[in-house]
Amino acid sequence: MAITKPETTSNPGSDGVAKPDSLNHVHDAATRGDPVAQRKLGIVYLEGDLGAARSVKEAVSWFRWAAVQGDAGAQFMLGILYDNGLGVTGSETEAVKYYRKASDQGLACAQVNLGVMYDMGHGVTQNETEAARLYRLAADQGLEGGQLNLGVMYQYGRGLIKNAAEAVRLYQMAADQEVPNAQFNLGIMYAIGEGVAENRREAAMYYRRAADQGHAPARHNLENLYSFGQATGINKTEAVKYDRLPADRGVVADRLSLAYRVEQGEIKSEKELVE
What we know:
There is one protein chain. The protein is mainly α. It has three domains: 1-83, no CATH class; 106-177, Serine Threonine Protein Phosphatase 5, Tetratricopeptide repeat (Alpha Horseshoe), CATH 1.25.40.10; 180-242, no CATH class. It has helices spanning 23-31, 35-47, 56-68, 72-84, 92-104, 108-120, 128-140, 144-156, 164-175, 180-192, 200-211, 216-232, 236-241, 249-253, 256-263.
């Protein structure tokens, strides 16, 4: 799972997220026992920012100090590190443990990642009902990954009663936040008339939005849409051939940019709860 580098400028960026002032400032607060500073310092060492030499070992150490004090962001980061075997021996069981700790505190990113573990049966007995519950918790906070994955569960009736219209609603919410997988899924729904009236124009629009972000299956479906055209209609078999992917780590990886911002303890909005 790729990790996206966080912003590290000293002042709030264009997204309004405050950034650490200096390495000494963060280090001093961390050594005084401030769990938020400890988590931030862990991120600094993980990425080699603010003039610090990159050290995953140091990052793990500071995340542990913060996690012991109950910091949800640090617990989530330890889950990520165990999930990927970065600085620690990879362990899906340990990843689940830390995702759960953060999830229980309401951290939406952790709820999605824990949901994926239940969805895939990684580090825990597979349980699609529990996965859907966790995705819903994250979706209710406005997190795109939760909306997308819960939409998948509704579309295929996994862990809950199948409801294509609800899947469309959730895909729409994530698509509006420019998630290419959600845009692709929504294009499929419009192309084949599932959960919404068939509409080739809308299908093409969503495929194009996803394709513009480099989504290869969306480009393929868009080409098919134009190839078969208005006269012959949509070839549904061909469209479904590239039907949406099940929830997987790829979806969760897309959330790591947000996750890092959450870990820095600066995001206070309703959709990005931290502390």
